[in-house]
Write a structure and sequence with these properties.
The complex is a heterodimer of chains A (58) and B (462). Chain A is built from 1 helix and no strands. Chain A is mainly α. Chain B has 462 residues and is an alpha/beta fold. In chain B, β9, α11 and β10 form a beta-alpha-beta unit.
């Protein structure tokens, strides 16, 4: 298997780390969405207008 | 050992010395051409690269080096003939924004690959080469079949090769030229965590990818199987991309970053020098030019306007970065590279042959050395004889070189405290030393600044 090469160092620790980071980013995204929804409920701003940093591309 | 096309089985003579890390294939020389052998184990991945349309998508965008596929001697082991890139350049010769753009290209290629059912299996900065000021991914065999339940196999390597050196430079913790020369694989998260300032604990990027990583990696504990998903992968890649897009060098003015705009020498001198250079090169047949001490690349761009393919070297990273960022308004073929001539890139890697050094890698039909000689002479005590020898090594035909006379204010500034060097610094001694290797064909005094521009021709066949 190509993925088992030592030179790329699949490092099981790196897999765990990525899972932690992805979870943290997911939580941040969830809370940001929630916060935007509350703000929009209070009539301040429409959701999704700003700060879609996680979806920013190119 | 895997069989390869047209070469005796254990013959390594044609094999490129940099090509031993990846068992998916290797590159080799034959009859002066460079080829890439695909090994049998990797062949299914290679077929997917072509069959999924990923290869076409990437080459159309100019992101991946194109190749021509030739039939191998053995079934399922094709030989590829890549579009030739020469000379190569390496991360320790790039400026901040060049490394940043190389990292962004790696992430964008990874994203594109995922949409075609593949992923990057390695993410080293050495897989990217700058060609005429644009990053190009050159390792065709870096793709493998994507599995949505697996995290990114090259994540850690990506951090060590792009994110860490950019963060260290961003926070003023050393240049990444020395980072890559000290260890081509880069530093570990733990080493970087020690170097970064404490305030980076408050920023999501360094917190997650460096400080958290330093406490998790490398774990003594046996790792649990990790569940990953397409969505998590997308989020991870987006975050890395976001961090790179936002990274920038702190605004510090370096010695050379605004040399021309601030120079006491004024416009008259520059215009005169530009005019003299134009007169000298307009009849020449354009080819590869090396601009030594290019600064912001003003004269590199002049040459480019005449069709020259210019590699612009400077020892000041900011100046290199400014030139890199200023390219592209017109179709200018200028490739900036960071290089201090008195400690230029060494030959490095296995047997010193994996990555060639500056002195054996770069040659120019035209070499430009404007306002350079007095710096090498006074700052580094480089004698004219050795200067001439070095320029002879780099130059295959013409040399345009400027001599700054002893009375010049810049010379007096450089010579302060080294007045003993002034005795040997004069036009006659300079011309005598150069004449060992070159014939002086044209002498143009620049009246506005009391400097002299020479056009010389290399003495051939010695």
């Amino acid at each position: 298997m190509i993925t088992d090469l030592l030179y790329v160092d699949p490092g099981s620790g790196s897999y765990l780390l990525q899972a932690l980071i992805a979870a943290a980013l997911g939580a941040a995204f969830y809370f940001k969405n929630g916060w935007l929804r509350i703000r929009s409920f209070l009539g301040r701003k429409k959701p999704g207008v700003q700060e879609q940093a996680d979806d920013k591309k190119e | 050992m895997t069989k390869r096309n047209d070469l005796p089985e254990d013959d390594v003579s044609g094999r490129h010395p940099a090509s031993y890390r990846d068992p998916a294939g290797f590159i080799f020389w034959q009859s002066g051409k460079l080829y890439r052998q695909v090994c049998r184990e990797y062949h299914p991945h290679y077929r997917l690269l072509i069959g999924s349309g990923l290869y076409d998508a990437l080459t159309e965008k100019g992101w991946l080096l194109a190749h021509r596929e030739l039939p191998g001697k053995v079934a399922d082991e094709p030989v590829l003939e890549p579009a030739f890139v020469e000379p190569l350049n390496y991360p320790y010769e790039w400026s901040f924004d060049m490394l940043k753009d190389a990292g962004l290209l790696t992430l964008r290629i990874c994203r594109e690959a995922i949409t075609h059912g593949m992923i990057l299996k390695d993410a080293t900065a050495f897989n990217i080469v700058f060609v005429k000021g644009r990053p190009v991914f050159i390792d065709t065999l870096s793709f493998e079949t994507y599995r949505a339940d697996q995290p990114w196999v090259a994540y850690r390597q990506f951090c060590q090769q792009f994110l860490f050196p950019l963060l260290l430079a961003r926070y003023g913790r050393g240049s990444f030229q020395s980072y890559f020369l000290a260890d081509a694989e880069g530093m570990t998260a733990r080493q970087v965590a020690c170097l970064l300032p404490r305030k980076t604990l408050l920023h999501a990027g360094p917190l997650l990818h460096v400080h958290l990583a330093a406490s998790v990696l490398p774990g003594g504990k046996q790792a649990r199987p990790v569940q990953f998903s397409r969505e998590k992968m997308s989020r991870l890649l987006s975050h890395l991309e976001h961090l790179l897009v936002r990274s920038a060098l702190p605004p510090v003015k370096s010695a050379w970053s605004h040399y021309y705009s601030d120079s006491i020498l004024g416009d008259g001198y520059l215009q005169e020098k530009e005019q003299a250079l134009r007169e000298m090169v307009k009849e020449m047949l354009p080819g590869r030019a090396l601009d030594l001490g290019a600064n912001d690349g003003f004269f590199s761009k002049v040459l480019s306007g005449y069709g020259w393919d210019v590699i612009a070297f400077d020892a000041d990273e900011r100046a290199v970065n400014n030139l890199y960022r200023s390219r592209g308004e017109r179709a200018q073929s200028v490739q900036p590279l960071w290089m201090n001539l008195v400690q230029a890139s060494p030959a490095i890697g296995w047997m010193g042959a994996e990555r060639a050094g500056f002195w054996s890698r770069f040659r120019g039909e035209l070499v430009l050395a404007l306002a350079l000689v007095h710096h090498l002479y006074f700052r580094y005590n480089l004698p004219f004889a050795q200067l001439a020898q070095g320029l002879d090594t780099l130059c295959t035909n013409s040399l345009v070189i400027e001599f700054v006379e002893p009375g010049d204010p810049k010379v007096e500034m450089l010579a302060a405290g080294r007045t003993y060097l002034l005795a040997g610094y004069n036009n006659e001694a300079f011309c005598a030393a150069m004449s060992v290797y070159f014939t002086i064909e044209e002498t143009v005094p620049l009246a506005a600044a009391g400097r002299i521009l020479y056009r010389m021709k290399k003495k051939q066949g010695e």
